[in-house]
Design brief:
The protein has 328 residues and is α/β, with parallel strands linked by helices. It is built from nine helices and ten strands. A ten-stranded mixed beta sheet has the order 1-2-4-3-5-6-7-10-9-8, sandwiched between helices.
């Protein structure tokens, strides 16, 4: 009898020990699964790719040292102009430096053949609006992205793409900023964002590529004038007209001919905001960026205006409501 009891006791002890071992092993596996992605993250600059619409698409990404897989971080998408690349616009805009200082991830997508397509039509048969949607989903898989703080900006054709994104991704992107960009005329009647759009526009009044006063309607890919685009977004956001301000930015070393005027519309629906920056006599460039053209560098030094810092200051003020932060 005593022998039988001893056997049952040993059997129970062995069973408990086995269960404890299994639980410990599972916890160990779970811990490895949680920490494993961190070892795969490349901090600083790196390259990435995804397959989209049957093509391999590439991008350049900067992950700051402050990034942790356990904590969501804001994402800024930066789109290059025609004949540019993700790496080239990163060099010009210097967003990497600001990303390290302020703590956000910045991604510079590459257009196929260094160009952007706003709709799937013609020989190229590329839809870059769809590409951006899939890119955002892809980036959510490789980084812990704050879904309420995804932003988009771009230069020239990349700025035009950014404007086009407002029409379809206002529920995924919290704020937009275009530099030397505008809204295509063909989108004026069909652009119906789901949400109010917070948008910053930076344009030169003497831009010979993206004309401040817009294009003729008969021109291929015609763009709306900058004042008209600003009014388009002001009406869409139901901004009160009396909040518009004309503020002259006077840098310490600037001349009277080179100044920046800011037109600000706030108090709009859902906390949205429309901000226009007009660089008087400014041309087709990323103001405050780096350039191999010494004349541009001289102009920027005299102007004393930093597009990159201004864009991030604008982005910081805007987030999506949590209910809108769902995956695409």
């Amino acid at each position: 009898m005593n022998l039988h009891l001893s056997y049952q006791l040993l059997k129970r002890v062995f069973t408990c020990f086995t269960l404890i071992s299994l639980i410990t092993a599972c916890e160990s596996i779970q811990a490895q699964q949680i920490t494993e992605p961190q070892s795969q993250v490349v901090f600083g600059a790196s390259n990435g790719e995804l397959t989209e619409q049957g093509a391999v698409r590439t991008y350049y990404i900067y992950t700051p040292k402050s990034y942790s897989p356990s904590r969501p971080m804001p994402l800024v998408l930066v789109f290059h102009g025609d004949d540019g690349s993700g790496r080239s616009i990163s060099n010009v805009s210097r967003f990497n430096e600001l990303a390290e200082q302020k703590g956000f991830i910045v991604v510079y997508p590459d257009g196929i053949d260094h160009k952007w397509s706003l709709r799937k039509k013609g020989k190229r048969n590329i839809d870059d609006i769809s590409f951006v949607k899939n890119l955002i989903n892809h980036l959510k898989q490789v980084r812990n992205i704050d879904k309420q703080r995804i932003y988009a900006t771009g230069f020239s054709r990349g700025g035009i793409l950014t404007q086009a994104l407002t029409c379809q991704l206002s529920d995924q992107i919290a704020a937009f900023a275009s530099v030397a960009g505008s809204l295509p005329m063909r989108l004026e009647q069909t652009c119906q964002p789901l949400l109010p759009v917070s948008i910053l526009m930076i344009n030169g009044t003497n831009d010979q590529s993206v004309h401040y006063q817009g294009d003729k309607k008969t021109q291929k890919g015609a763009l709306i004038s900058i004042p008209k685009v600003v009014n388009f977004w002001r009406v869409h956001n139901q901004c009160p007209t009396y909040t518009a301000k004309d503020v002259a930015f006077a840098p310490n070393n600037g001349s009277s001919n080179d100044k920046v005027k800011t037109y600000s519309y706030s108090g709009c629906n859902a906390g949205s905001e429309v901000l226009q920056v007009a660089v008087v006599n400014g041309g087709h460039l990323w103001y405050g960026g780096t350039s191999s053209d010494e004349n541009i560098n001289k102009f920027n030094n005299n102007l004393g205006f930093d597009s990159t810092q201004t864009i991030w200051n604008f982005f910081e003020r805007h987030t999506l409501p949590p209910v809108q932060g769902k995956d695409i």
